[in-house]
Amino acid sequence: MSRVVVAGYGPAAHRFVEALRERGFDGRITVIGEEPRPAYDRVALTSYLTGTSLADLTYAVPEGVETLLGTRVTGIDREARVVATAGGATVPYDVLVLATGSAPFVPPVPGAEHAHVYRTIDDLDAIRAASDGASEGVVVGGGLLGLEAADALRGLGLRTHIVEMSPWLMPRQVDEGGGAVLKGHIEDLGLSVHAGAGVQEVVTDAEGRVTGLRKPDGSLLDAQIVVFSAGIRPRDELARAAGIDVGERGGVVVDAGMRTSDPAVYAIGECALAGGQVYGLVGPCNTMAEVAADRILGGTAVFEGADLSTKLKLLGVEVAQFGAMSGALDVTYMDPVGGVYKRLFISDDARTLLGGICVGDAAPYATLRPFVGKPLPAAPADLLFTGTGAAGLDLPDEAQVCSCNNVSAGAVRAAIADKGVSDVPGVKACTRAGTTCGSCVPMLKQLLEKSGVEISKALCEHFTYSRAELFDIIRVRGVTTFSELIAGHGTGRGCDICKPTVASILASLHNGHVLEGERAALQDTNDAYLANIQKNGTYSVVPRIPGGEITPDKLIVIGEVARDFGLYTKITGGQRIDLFGARVEQLPQIWKRLVDAGFESGHAYGKALRTVKSCVGSTWCRYGVQDSVGLAIALELRYRGLRAPHKLKSAVSGCARECAEARSKDFGIIATEQGWNLYVGGNGGFKPRHADLFASDLTTDELIRTIDRFLMYYIRTADRLQRTAAWVESIEGGLDHVRDVIVNDSLGLCAELDAQMAHHVSTYEDEWRATIEDPEKLSRFVSFVNAPGVPDPSIVFERERDQIKPMVVTP
Amino acid sequence: MTVTLPMTWTTVCDYHVLLPERGVCALVGGEQVAVFRTFDGAVYAIGNLDPFSGAHVLSRGIVGTRGGEPTVASPLHKQVFSLVTGACLDEPGTAVPTYPARVADGRVEVAARAALPERDGPVNASGRSLVDAP
Ligand SMILES: Cc1cc2nc3c(=O)[nH]c(=O)nc-3n(C[C@H](O)[C@H](O)[C@H](O)COP(=O)(O)OP(=O)(O)OC[C@H]3O[C@@H](n4cnc5c(N)ncnc54)[C@H](O)[C@@H]3O)c2cc1C
Ligand code: FES
């Protein structure tokens, strides 16, 4: 078969074409989507309103897949095997896949046409536009999506009401007791909940502007925005019109191989009715996509229904439901003060776990969901009351760990055992588990920890501790030297892994010169020579140019130094200048010239702050809204010399155009009309990652305090050579946890972090100057200890483009 | 094949100049030799040439131990060499030469070997150094 056409381009369509390509399908694939953009992560839709860019949400179109965007499919001619599009074109197919998803249900009440729905990027743009000048909003529907919409309205600064027909919120996920606890949480956040209430009318003024929502009892809620989120309906209209079987209550009927009543037509995702059920969660939609791809390529995969368990954090409240919502026996834990409600359903013989509901603390979800239908792993009371949940339990292989991607414990174990995967990112890459909603990540960690392969946190053969643990030992016991540490807490005499790590911790905690006393012997050659070693054993020298701002006079000095020492000169990506080809004995002479002209070390060699890049900002740029250069200089001077588990990069952009590429940095700052937005956890390099929005519209003082704490918390808890991006990903609770620690001081650490940064700032000294002023340190900078005047004869250069380059010497 | 003839000792530096676990490089009979003092006070000498990169840098590596054996790690690509045997512990089959080393009269001395493995001529013979120390 040669041509596959997909109608609809949402997450299910995306997964489907990806799966087809991955499985080696080499025919033509055409995806026709009504939205004007490729598929995007609808699960994360709300983050679009809080700063995540469309680009970050959008999935890459797999190679070789044709797309027709902004194009609605209007009909199917099954006889001729072509689909018609709204533009009047026809597209022939050999296999047609319907992936049209679903549409929000809007109850037919007067004025409904003036209300919004909450499903697409365009919907969110419309809501955002309408929120301008609005002060109150109503969301009709108190289910999962309704609460998400309410959260969005609240985020837009509106006083928000939630109107729910059922007697309590989220009736599909929680029971009455859970609903009551949930309502308490949501009201605490300042939202009003109107449960057991319907809708009479969307009230508008003469110009058709929304002014409120009338309830059946006649009462009126003032609102300038009304959002309907009262359920979804499968978009089965194409199939229906073409005479393909649809269910009584909607949905395209499919068999276990996702085939419709027309053998040339498949249906996947939310538009499909599989086993008599429409699935409104992305996990089953993905599974259907995989099954259809397999079948089209001649496989025998079947869709066996799916777990409808859900876990989410809405408005800061964890809610989870798994398995059945009733059972012969049940055990309930309820703490109305703490806002926690947990209930487990158990078979009549009290042996088998049937399901559970959690509000306020979803820990049992991750640990117990895989036991649904299996013998209870411990006494129910222990599972619910100890707070530790079921941590420490052994999961059966067939237990599903990741419901979004249908990955079993066995599959994760196989990845660990057969593919040598040893961390969460590895498991994600290998199995897709944990890549969608992320709620199963704690489970993945546990499987890793318990797997036969011992994943040791040990830094190296000399220490059984992780970097974070060593940090604590050094901090708490006041250790000041490596010898003291290894004598008390390690074995042997260290190596190239633990020594620089300990040197970095000592530097972070105590500052002081990196070449002072015993510490000199701990440093990697770059730190030991305060320069970057190059392939031929020479070094490169990078003076600090804070914020990339430099006077002509200083620029001339750099040029003169480079010329006089014959150094290869290159502008770096960090807005400064790198001088290559210096021999060890030349370094102090080069530094002296630079230091005399007012330069200092740029720490290009250290696991330390590198640069804070900036665009030119409001001083010159007609678009700039803040002085990005001034801030970049202040930040670079504040954090210069700060030793960290890995290098740190930063940038400041003076407006939303983001010319400084701040979002590719460990901490990036983008100016807003009101102040600064802080992004963290970005990097370029081998695995590029955009930084995530951490806090918005900060004043400069707030910004600096937040960065101080972010950096110190990172330095304290990250692994060796772990950039901030990987650190944020690996930390339990992710960015939310980090925000909790440094914004809400949830661990009571902030005072200490602030003090540590203050110590760093006040004790900073330029390492180059301190070295050239100290004869003892200076004496190390010779090629040959017994022939100090002799340069290393093995270092030779040739010329290329009017500059030197190392001559390649074959060993 | 290396033929070792009777030793001539070359003074490298005063013992106190050789800091624990921090190497130096010395010219010994025209050869670059990396000299180390371990934590227990013993001295070792190995060739300074890193066989993996072709750069003369081993004296600038981090000194440590592996399973109790004193080692240095190449500062370029981190391969670890035994200070005792010169063998690369990460890539069996590769080794650097070792030299006898001792402390005499408060000075560190290394024995030049009268015969050395076959080598190409001096590496700078065909090139010209464009950089002179100012
Ligand atoms: C705000 C929000 C939060 C959510 N949160 C979660 C969550 O936490 N966990 C979870 O599991 N699920 C969540 N979901 C549900 C999840 O997004 C859906 O299950 C998933 O998007 C379904 O994918 P789909 O491709 O089947 O359908 P859709 O995403 O609806 O995509 C269908 C696409 O087809 C297009 N289309 C329809 N008809 C035509 C036509 N005739 N011609 C051309 N194109 C057409 C549509 O415009 C749409 O772009 C959430 C949904 C929303 C809206
Ligand atoms: S359960 Fe959602 S990513 Fe695994």
Give a written overview of the molecule:
Chain A has 811 residues and is of the alpha/beta class. Chain A has 6 domains: 3-104 and 233-296, FAD/NAD(P)-binding domain; 112-230, FAD/NAD(P)-binding domain; 307-390, 2-Layer Sandwich (Enolase-like, domain 1), CATH 3.30.390; 394-453, Arc Repressor Mutant, subunit A, CATH 1.10.10; 467-529, no CATH class; 619-640 and 653-779, Sulfite Reductase Hemoprotein, domain 1, CATH 3.30.413. In chain A, 30% of the residues lie in helices and 21% in strands. In chain A, strands 3-2-1-7-19 form a 5-stranded parallel beta sheet, with no helix packed on it. In chain A, strands 9-16-10-11-12 form a 5-stranded parallel beta sheet, covered by helices on one side. Chain A has a 5-stranded antiparallel beta sheet with strand order 22-23-26-25-24. In chain A, helix 1 packs parallel to helix 7 and helix 13 (467-477) crosses helix 15. Chain A is globular and about 95 Å long. The relative contact order of chain A is 0.06. Mean pLDDT of chain A is 89; it is low at 387-391. Chain B is mainly β. Chain B has one domain (12-116): Rieske Iron-sulfur Protein (3-layer Sandwich). Chain B is 0% helix and 37% strand. Chain B is built from no helices and 10 strands. At the A-B interface, helix 15, helix 16 and strand 38 of A face strand 1, strand 2, strand 5 and strand 6 of B. The complex binds flavin-adenine dinucleotide and FE2/S2 (inorganic) cluster.
